[in-house]
Design a protein that fits this description.
This protein is α+β, with helices and mostly antiparallel strands. The protein folds into two domains: 2-96, OB fold (Dihydrolipoamide Acetyltransferase, E2P) (Beta Barrel), CATH 2.40.50.140; 117-417, 2-Layer Sandwich (BirA Bifunctional Protein, domain 2), CATH 3.30.930.10. Helices cover 31% and strands 28% of the residues. The protein has helices at residues 49-52, 54-61, 110-115, 117-120, 124-146, 185-195, 231-252, 254-259, 264-268, 279-288, 302-309, 364-373, 382-389, 402-410, and strands spanning 2-3, 15-27, 31-37, 42-48, 68-77, 85-96, 150-151, 157-158, 170-173, 176-180, 197-205, 218-227, 276-278, 316-319, 332-333, 336-340, 342-347, 352-360, 395-401. It has an eight-stranded mixed beta sheet with strand order 7-11-12-19-18-17-14-13. A five-stranded mixed beta barrel has the order 2-3-4-6-5. A hairpin with a 3-residue loop joins strand 2 and strand 3. Its EC number is 6.1.1.22.
C-alpha cells in the first residue's frame, strides 16, 4: 500500500510503500540508516544486511543524497526517534539517481543557500518553517471564518497608493500609470461597507531599500477591516487572533518547533489580553533606558521596539502615535488631535512590529482635509471619499505581516527563511 510518511502511524507493523527522497544516510558494516523525506515529513529507514541480502544492502549503501525512490518496508514504533516511528526496509526501487547534489550536510553561507533556494527548501529546517507558515495560514482562515468575516481579494494593480508613493513599484497599465499594491486596505474599507467584517490575504510590495532581517520586498499580509468597530474593538480582535494562531501552531506543529529548537515556554505564554502602552509612555521608558536621542515626533526604530519588547513576555501594543508619523486615513483621538487612534503590535524577542492598525477617519470633511494636507489627488481618491459620503460609519482595521509572524513563532533569525522564494534587495533569483 502506497502511503506518505505523515500517515505511517495508521500502519504500525504493516508493510507499506513510500515515495521518498534520500536526505542523508549513514551505515555500518551490517546496517544502513536512510534518512527519508517525502514532503509530508522525515523518517528513518533501516536496512539490515542479514534480512535483505547482499544485493539490496549494497544498493542501499550506494544511494546518493536526494536520489528519488520507492521504499518498501514495515512500519515499527521507535521511542528514540522524535518522529516516533521507523521503517524496516524490505526493498528499494530507485526512480532517479541524484548526482553531485550541491547542498551537502556541511555548513553553507547564506548567499550560496539563497542561490540554491529551490533546493534549500528540501532541508529539514526549511521544511519545518514552511509547515509552520502553512499552519498560520490555515489557522488564520479558521479564526476569521468562525468570527464571521468574509474573505475578499483586493486588486494587486492600483492607480493610487494608500500610504504615499515613495516606496511603490510603478508600471504601465496600458496608457495609465499603475502601481503594485503596498496594501489592500482602502479596498477592504469599501468591502467592509458592503459585507460588514472582511479580511484579505495576499501579496504586497514595498520598494524599500532595506537590508534588515525584518524586511522583504515582496511579502504577504492579512488585512481585516470591520464596520462599526472602534479602536478598542479592533485591539481585542488583534490580540485574540494572534493568540489563536500561536496556540494553533503549538498544538499542530510540535515536531516542527522541536526541529527548530524553539523554546515552547515562550509561546505558551501568548494568550490575550496583551499589555498596552502609549507612544508617550514608550518615550518615557526609552529615556529611562538611556535612549536620549529620541524625541516626541520621532518614529520608533528597531532598537527602540526591541528594548520595549524585552520588558514583556507577550506582544505589546504601542498606541496613540503622533499624527505626523502615520498615514492620512487614521482617526485623530477626539481628546487630543495631535495623536491618532492607532496601534503597532510589537512581538517579543526582538522580532519587531507584526501588526499595524487603526480606527479610520469616517468624517468626509476631515478626510478631504487630510488628502489635501498630504498632497494627494482628490480625483484619484474620489471613490474612497464616497465611502464617507454614502452612509459613513466608524470602522477599524489592521494588517499583519505574515513573514515576520512566521519568523517570530518559529524562532528563525531572518525573514528570508519564512517565504518559499524571498525577494530581497538585489535578489530576484531564483
Amino acid at each position: 500500500m502506497k502511503i506518505t510518511i505523515k500517515e505511517v502511524s495508521k500502519y504500525l507493523n504493516q508493510e507499506v510503500v513510500i515515495g521518498a527522497w534520500l536526505a542523508n544516510k549513514r551505515s555500518s558494516g551490517k546496517i544502513a540508516f536512510l534518512q527519508l523525506r517525502d514532503g509530508s515529513g522525515f523518517m528513518q529507514g533501516v536496512v539490515v544486511k542479514e534480512e535483505v541480502g547482499e544485493e539490496l544492502f549494497a544498493r542501499a549503501k550506494s544511494l546518493t543524497q536526494e536520489t528519488s525512490m520507492y521504499v518498501t518496508g514495515i512500519v515499527k514504533s521507535d521511542d528514540r526517534s522524535p518522529f516516533g516511528y521507523e521503517l524496516q526496509v524490505t526493498n528499494v526501487e530507485v526512480i532517479h539517481e541524484s548526482v553531485d547534489y550541491p547542498i551537502t550536510p556541511k555548513a553553507h553561507g547564506p548567499e550560496f543557500l539563497l542561490d540554491n533556494r529551490h533546493l534549500w527548501l528540501r532541508s529539514k529546517r526549511q521544511h519545518a518553517v514552511m509547515k509552520i507558515r502553512n499552519e498560520i495560514i490555515r489557522a488564520t482562515y479558521e479564526f476569521f471564518n468562525q468570527e464571521g468575516f468574509v474573505k475578499v481579494d483586493p486588486p494587486i494593480l492600483t492607480g493610487s497608493a494608500p500610504e504615499g508613493t515613495t516606496e511603490l513599484f510603478a508600471t504601465k497599465y496600458f496608457d495609465e500609470d499603475a502601481f503594485l499594491s503596498q496594501s489592500g486596505q482602502l479596498y477592504m474599507e469599501a468591502t467592509a461597507m458592503a459585507l460588514g467584517k472582511v479580511f484579505s490575504f495576499g501579496p504586497t510590495f514595498r520598494a524599500e531599500k532595506s537590508k534588515t532581517r525584518r524586511h522583504l520586498i515582496e511579502f504577504w499580509m492579512i488585512e481585516p477591516e470591520m464596520a462599526f468597530y472602534q479602536h478598542e474593538d479592533s485591539l481585542q480582535v488583534q490580540e485574540q487572533y494572534v493568540s489563536f494562531i500561536v496556540q494553533s501552531v503549538l498544538k499542530n506543529c510540535q515536531l516542527e518547533l522541536n526541529t527548530l529548537g524553539r523554546d515552547l515556554t515562550k509561546l505558551e505564554q501568548i494568550q490575550a489580553p496583551f499589555p498596552r502602552i502609549t507612544y508617550d509612555e514608550a518615550l518615557k521608558f526609552l529615556h529611562d533606558k538611556g535612549f536620549d536621542d529620541i524625541k516626541w515626533g520621532d518614529d520608533l526604530g528597531a532598537p527602540h521596539e526591541t528594548a520595549i519588547a524585552e520588558s514583556y513576555d507577550k506582544p505589546v501594543f504601542i498606541t496613540h502615535y503622533p499624527t505626523s508619523l502615520k498615514p492620512f486615513y487614521m482617526q485623530p483621538d477626539p481628546e487630543r488631535e495631535e495623536v491618532v487612534l492607532c496601534a503597532d503590535l510589537i512581538a517579543p524577542e526582538g522580532y519587531g512590529e507584526i501588526i499595524g492598525g487603526s480606527e479610520r477617519i469616517h468624517d468626509l470633511a476631515l478626510m478631504e482635509q487630510r488628502i489635501a494636507e498630504h498632497g494627494l489627488s482628490p480625483e484619484a481618491y474620489n471613490w474612497y471619499l464616497e465611502l464617507r459620503k454614502y452612509g459613513s460609519v466608524p470602522h477599524s482595521g489592521f494588517g499583519l505581516g505574515l513573514e515576520r509572524t512566521v519568523a517570530w513563532i518559529s524562532g528563525v533569525d531572518h525573514v528570508r527563511e519564512t517565504i518559499p522564494f524571498p525577494r530581497l534587495l538585489n535578489r530576484l533569483y531564483p
